[in-house]
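Comment thread on ticket #2218

A.B. wrote:
> Attaching the input chain for the structure job we discussed in standup.
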Amino acid sequence: MLAYILRRLLLVIPTLFGIMVVNFALTQFVPGGPFDQIEAQLDNQNDAMGTLAGGNGDDAGIKAANGKDGTYTGARGLPPEFRAKLEVEFGFARFICPQGYDGSLTQQAKDCEKEMIPAFERFTIMMGKFLRFDFGESYFKSKSVVQMVIEKMPVSITLGLWSTLIAYMISIPLGIRKAVRDGSRFDSWTSGVIIAAYSIPTLLFAVILLVTFAGGSYYQIFPLRGLTSNGFENLSFFGKISDYLWHIALPVLASTISSFATLTLLTKNSFLDEIRKQYVMTARAKGLSERRVLYGHVFRNAMLIVIAGFPGLFLSVFFGSSIIIEKVFTLDGLGLMGFNAAVSRDYPVIFGTLFAFGLIGLVVGILSDLMYVWVDPRIDFERRG
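C.D. wrote:
> Ran it. Output below, let me know if you need it in another format.
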């Protein structure tokens, strides 16, 4: 088993490298970039200042936007010197300075020449830093990527962990009961409910919960935003727990609905496959009780695929639907951070989180195999390999 784990760990390196290469290459062809985002923000500020100064664009507004000599001072785009410094700061270029350079910005702008760094070299530099777990700083915030991830982690962990645990706590007993009573009226109406729940988009269900129970057109039972209330620190221990559960109730319910449906049907089908096998008939013929047959023999084999899917389900809730839930319920988590980084082309945040979470996903895949062996020691991946 140790040799199998070692092989899987070695495969993590080329797989992660391939993920980074593909995504880095795609960003080279996507229109727009961090400089375009900065220019757009400056242009919007200039437009807003012109509107405030001159109302609807009359002569007063035009004069306010111009200098005393009538020349236009609100020119679009970044000044060349400032853009050159940003390109160097962001790692897209470097300054080549003559001998005797004293390090001053004045001499740098005057005497140094800017040289653009090729994409291949930028990728190599980036991966070298990532291998040392140095993910750099955000282009638009004076924070490191690691610090930003740590700040957003509680929201995503809350959604992922609670949604996965609740889905398993409900789906496994329900799936087993549906398998035992396959074809009954209970099986029929619960299947209808499950299919209906699965067909509801996460976004729509989240909006329905928000409008119905969070101060929309009907009831104001749950809060609109955040994980805690103002003054959370001053609450008692049980007050903090109740406040926390009060805030996460709707977001967790919205993120659980689709995974709950999938897991229930998966559990049912897995148990049905095992119940119809020969060893179950043999156990019953020996006089074992139905409960002993079900939980002593069928459960271990049927739960293999269900337990092995736990890490994948957790990650799918953790990263997949979190951006929708966070946006609807105004939660500042990893999903929203990644979305904002992609929109603003904040490459350190994009690639840093992609590398970290890609590595986590690959390691979790190995843990899934280990969970197979833990549930059923008869499985030997090393011998199969």
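A.B. wrote:
> Thanks. Noting for the ticket: The CA atoms of residues 34 and 345 lie 5 Å apart.
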